[in-house]
Amino acid sequence: MPTFQVTNATELQSALGRAVGGDTILLAAGDYGSLNLNNKKFTAPVTVKALSATGQVHFDGITVSNSSYLTFKGLDLGRGLSVAEPEYTKLNTVQNSANIRFVDVSIHGSLDNDPTNDGIGFYVTDSKNVYVHNAKFTELFRGALFQRVDGVGLYNSSFEGIRSDGANFAGNDHVVIRGNTFTDFNRYGTDHADAIQFWNTGQTKGQSDITISDNVFIQTVAGKGAQGIFMSDNETYKFRDVTIENNLMFSNDDYHGISVNNAENLRIANNTITSASGDDKLFWILAESSTNVTVVNNVTDRLILNSNLTNLVSQGNITLESGAYRNLLPNLVNPHTPVDLIAPGVGYQAPTQGPLSSAASSFLSGMLGGNASQSHASTLIPNALDDLADTGGRYAQQLSVAPLPEPIYDVYQPAPNWAGLTDHWIAHP
Question: Does the pLDDT value for residue 249 go beyond 50?
């Protein structure tokens, strides 16, 4: 298969014009500006990749439209926004395309520690089979948004310093979110922050065949609390065939660890969802208005299974609310490593797919105040992601982008008597 070597944007466009399925285009280090690809339809993957791992290949952004079988590998993608650009500006976009992969990429905003001048890192709409593997999302308004995509894969990627949500999903089918890490969100003003959020508002269908597994979400920055996985449907479409399994979440200052509303065939199993001892907002697992629900072997601050669930199986779950089981996680006041958040035999367990890399180990340990030489360095890390926020009650601002009209939730009202399980969100148009 031919290989093209290019050194600038003009040569890259020429190589793309001559390439056929199976070819590889190698990019010398440099700044290639913005890349717009339209009607590049191949029958086998064409790979656009960095020539060397030591020389940065930078794009301000990549737009792929009406194209197929493209793989982008080893690239640096992103920029800060100009004063005139709104926060919902999309830096990298895939639309009306199929079989597109982004591998070993860095997707970022300004990288100036200012969360007010960053956009949406990665936006995919009306496409099929789009996969992101080993990406690093850093300092963005939102990390990634997927809308009306059949076949989504988000694997082994990291989200750090995100201002709002890590990854959003609307109107998708066949979604796998596995082995990702979400850390130290950087909320600004009235932002909400969620690791992973699904919604159906503004869509014409629900979402189905969803697996969220082996992810680690740890938020330690005081006053910047973020939530975990949130799936809420105010329409009648439902979330169908949903598995949320073996995820580890630790966050203070927010309630929603895992929250699912209006699902059919829902399994929530083997997750650990907790916050520091003394946190006044218990990090909970909540399921409501759903059918065929299995909730088993989870460890969580609080478990809320509302009375409007049908065909419910709940067993083997441990709640830390009463304090009786707190000794399972003795270092919750000040955890130092991910191992401090793992209870033997119940809840999240280090996956068996492969060893936790020294880089990931050091990153998570440093975030928790430990170091990479501690015992967790040889443990195993997951392979995949959401909700709305809280300011005393439930609050979320609407995403200001027409294709993804996120519902606004205001004034979350916990039930005065938990036994009644009647708490809900008051939705505002």
Answer: yes
